[in-house]
TrEMBL record:
Keywords: FAD, Flavoprotein, Monooxygenase, Oxidoreductase. InterPro entries: FAD-bd (IPR002938), FAD/NAD-bd_sf (IPR036188), UbiH (IPR011295), UbiH/COQ6 (IPR010971), UbiH/COQ6_monooxygenase (IPR051205). It holds the Pfam family FAD_binding_3. Pathway: Cofactor biosynthesis; ubiquinone biosynthesis. This is 2-octaprenyl-6-methoxyphenyl hydroxylase. It comes from Pseudomonas schmalbachii.
Length: 394
């Protein structure tokens, strides 16, 4: 193939979304887009009880509607009708409802495999080419772009390289781009569980002295669990027999959904706030988890990355300059600065506040939750953050 204008390193959900955002006008700009991905996407969606999932904000739905893929995604997207926020053993709690916010849902929970299939099938092969399975081993800055050396020793030159290869990006390190890391001292345990009662589209965020937990609604009356504990305790929970695990989870979560009857495969990973010290260079953009990895409890990470991708795609398509032009990339990053600061700050502060067992802080946050439920302006602000609309005008 001839030299692509844009090479996206990482064809996962963020990379594929960016390719879809760009292809709308790539033909008239004469652009070719290349996706480089080490793991070949499956030919068809395969249902699985243990499927990993992503919480999409209402703002993300709006982006996918604009791209013409939401109707397909929505076939297996479970709407979040209500979010219940509480602190275990204390009086404070708050409820956010889609009805109060005047939206069909506060957000949606979608299996990653299904979301990926919807995005990949929407890509136009005349505009978006794949190198898959393939891995970029080396990136070299040129005067007018980047040269990518792949694991088969072939090379690709491009005007703009987008680094979207995840939070543990080895290429980011190879390029000498530092990261700021702030460990939470917690490990996330991820699993799907089934309650005896209908979840009715309810999402729960529950804060405990040992760390926050979230239970999000999935199709087939399953729930996606994110349970943060100390590293040692998370590994202990992961190894427990199913019945013992469910008993501990039930004791922590309570009986708002009746009895928790089934749990699938359990996975653990340590948690840190990771932010890239550079997101742009001439002819280079760092995107997705490679740019910022957030605590999963607030469900903001992918949604922020999707808004970054939308802003980048819009900026590239609006400008007459070549896509790797540094001034263009600076305008993209300046336009996203407020959204990134607000979202990262919101997610980080909420997580740290509700992971602290100090009595004075516990009392203060419970008063805050009570006030959130009683003060409409505060509740509106919190809801807009949760819906991914916080940096947009009301």
């Amino acid at each position: 193939m001839r030299r692509p204008q844009i090479a996206i390193v990482g064809g996962g959900l963020v990379g594929a979304s960016l390719a879809l955002l760009l292809q709308s006008r790539a033909r008239e700009r004469g652009w070719k887009i290349l996706l480089i991905e080490p793991f070949a996407p499956g030919d068809s969606y395969q249902p699985s009880y243990d499927a990993r999932s992503t919480a999409l904000s209402f703002g993300s739905r709006q982006i996918y509607e604009r791209l013409g893929v939401w109707q397909q995604i929505a076939q297996r997207a479970e709407p979040i009708a209500q979010i219940h926020v509480s602190d275990r053993g204390r009086f404070g709690s708050a409820r956010l409802t889609a009805m109060e916010e005047g939206v069909p849902a506060l957000g949606y929970v979608v299996e990653n495999a299904w979301l990926g299939q919807c995005l990949w099938h929407a890509l136009d092969p005349e505009l978006v080419s794949w190198r898959c399975p393939a891995e970029v081993r080396q990136m070299e800055a040129l005067g007018d772009g980047y040269r990518l050396t792949l694991d088969d020793d072939s090379q690709v030159d491009c005007d703009l390289a987008v680094l979207a290869d995840g939070g543990r990006s080895s290429l980011r390190e190879q390029l000498g781009i530092g990261v700021h890391t702030a460990p939470y001292g917690q490990t996330a345990l991820i699993a799907n569980v089934s309650p005896s009662e209908d979840h009715r589209g309810q999402a729960f965020e529950r804060f405990t002295d040992h760390g926050p937990m979230a239970l999000l609604p999935l199709p087939e009356n399953r729930c996606a669990l994110v349970w943060t504990r100390s590293s040692k305790d998370a590994e202990r929970l992961r190894e427990l027999p199913d019945a013992e695990f469910l008993r501990e989870l039930q004791d922590t979560f309570g009986y708002r959904l009746g009895t928790l009857r089934q749990v699938g495969a359990r996975y653990t990973y340590p948690l840190s706030l990771i932010e890239s010290e550079e997101q742009i260079r001439p002819h280079l953009v760092v995107l997705g988890n490679a740019a910022h990895s957030l605590h999963p409890i607030a469900g903001q990470g992918f949604n922020l990355s999707l808004r970054d991708a939308q802003a980048l795609g819009d900026r590239l398509l609006q400008e007459e300059a070549p896509p790797g032009d540094f001034a263009v990339l600076q305008r993209y990053l300046e336009g996203q600065a407020l959204d990134q600061q607000m979202t990262v700050g919101f997610s980080d502060r909420v997580t740290r506040l509700f992971s602290n067992a100090q009595p004075l802080l516990a009392t203060g946050r419970n008063l805050g939750l009570l006030g959130l439920d009683l003060l409409p302006p505060a509740k509106r602000w919190f809801a807009r953050q949760a819906m991914g609309l916080g940096a947009r005008p009301v």
